[in-house]
Amino acid sequence: MHIGIITVRDNTYHPNGRLVEAAAESGHCAVLIHPYRLWPRVGKPGLGFEGQPDLKSLDVVLPRQG
Prior knowledge:
This protein has one helix spanning 14-25; strands spanning 2-6, 29-33, 38-43, 46-51, 60-63. It is α/β, with parallel strands linked by helices. A three-stranded parallel sheet has the order 2-1-5, with helices on one face. 9% of the residues are buried.
């Protein structure tokens, strides 16, 4: 499973690092998504997002904004 984690901090922040590590230990892939590097898009073929990473490959997204 490919997991996206929305957070303003990188993986040097201990809780984020642990989430990525726990996902890997469980056989999953986790990627951190900075909310300021992601933009909503309206157009064809519908609603979506642009920026990094490619969200089409993600199965689930976890918001971790305080």
